[in-house]
Specification:
The protein is an all-alpha fold. Helix 1 packs across helix 2, helix 1 packs antiparallel against helix 4 and helix 2 packs parallel to helix 4. The longest helix has 16 residues. The chain is globular and about 50 Å long. Belongs to the UPF0057 (PMP3) family. This is Plasma membrane proteolipid 3. Pfam families: Pmp3. Its main location: membrane.
């Protein structure tokens, strides 16, 4: 849970982030990481070592494509 520095609320709607291009770039980067480095994408999204990360590592070692599919589904949700 994040607290806004400007007003102290938990989800600040007062931010003016421009046209939203930064969010699209982050999503694009996350999807590219999910395709090329699936465990890194999961770790970047979770920010810690979880069971989903271990499942993705297992899928990536078992076969590269299942790990990429798992990471892409996880990152886009």
């Amino acid at each position: 849970m994040c607290i806004c520095v400007k007003c102290g609320c938990f989800s600040c709607k007062n931010e003016s982030s421009g046209n939203g291009a930064e969010k699209e770039d982050a999503d694009f980067l996350d999807v590219m990481l999910a395709i090329f480095l699936p465990p890194v994408a999961i770790y970047k999204k979770q920010k810690r070592c979880t069971a989903k990360l271990w499942v993705n590592i297992f899928l990536t070692v078992s076969g590269y494509v299942p790990g990429s599919i798992h990471a892409a589904i996880f990152v886009t949700n």
